[in-house]
Specification:
single chain; 6% strand; 10 helices; globular
């Protein structure tokens, strides 16, 4: 058993934090009653191919669930919505964690928001939220689980849930902005993202794809602001609008 001085924090109502030990990192699992229920060695987990970890690795999922998620994100229809997308979001999370109040909810939503990705489908978000609730109901507090489900469903229209207030509303804004941060990356990275989206819709005829994609992109440009939070608005609003406009010009070019 680790000594008390190795424990930096306990996230009440969830499972995770990772004090450093001689063998790497050890994930200490704490129940909502702050009862030790087990440990997982993160040195092994971090060696898994493409396993994303950030300096916020004190909050992560039990190893068996991580393995299952990685399998789902490796499904053959995915090109952008893969495990690499989750890794990119974890990097974003590491940069804004200090502004997030409900960290367990945000991270659970981050891991599960694209876990169901069927093309074409109009209910991937609801199915993803349902699977998350099923798999995490014994691992996270009810309030955090309910919030995480709302965050996932909010990605359908990428609008902050109107029922949320205060810090939950702020966390929803940051979560949606993290998911849309890809729009504001350097141009070469954006072009790779756009190419991967096209691959996911390979079965759509070219002209129909151009029309549908332009409609979606135009919807972002018509918004008063793409990013809800001040952090992302100041950082990425300009580059995102430039990238979107560039892609639309490319799609509309004869």
């Amino acid at each position: 058993m680790m000594k008390d001085q190795h424990i930096a924090a306990i996230l009440r109502g969830s499972l995770w934090f990772a004090p450093q030990v001689e063998s790497g990192f050890e994930l200490i699992l704490i129940s909502s009653q702050e009862r030790l229920v087990g440990t997982i060695n993160l040195l092994y987990l971090s060696c898994m191919e493409d396993m994303p970890f950030t300096n916020q690795s004190e909050y992560t999922l039990p190893g068996n669930l991580l393995a299952q998620l990685k399998g789902r994100y490796a499904e053959p229809q995915r090109h952008y919505h893969t495990w690499s997308h989750i890794g990119q979001l974890l990097q974003e999370y590491g940069g804004v964690a200090e502004y997030i109040t409900h960290r367990a909810a945000v991270l659970c939503a981050l891991y599960y928001h694209d876990v169901i990705y069927e093309i074409p489908s109009s209910d991937n978000e609801c199915k993803s939220a349902d699977l998350m609730k099923q798999e995490l109901q014994d691992h996270i507090g009810a309030d955090d689980l309910a919030l995480a489900a709302k965050l996932i469903i909010a990605t359908k229209e990428h609008e902050v849930d109107a029922s949320l207030e205060g810090t939950k509303k702020q966390d929803c804004a940051l979560f949606l902005d993290m998911d849309m941060s890809i729009l504001g990356v350097p141009r070469d990275d954006y072009l790779q993202y756009a190419e991967k989206i096209r691959k996911e819709y390979f079965f759509v005829p070219e002209e129909l794809y151009k029309t549908g994609r332009c409609k979606i992109l135009a919807g972002f440009l018509e918004r008063r602001r793409i990013y809800f939070s001040s952090f992302y608005f100041e950082k990425l609003e300009g580059p995102a609008r430039a990238n979107i406009a560039h892609e639309m010009r490319s799609l509309l070019r004869p």
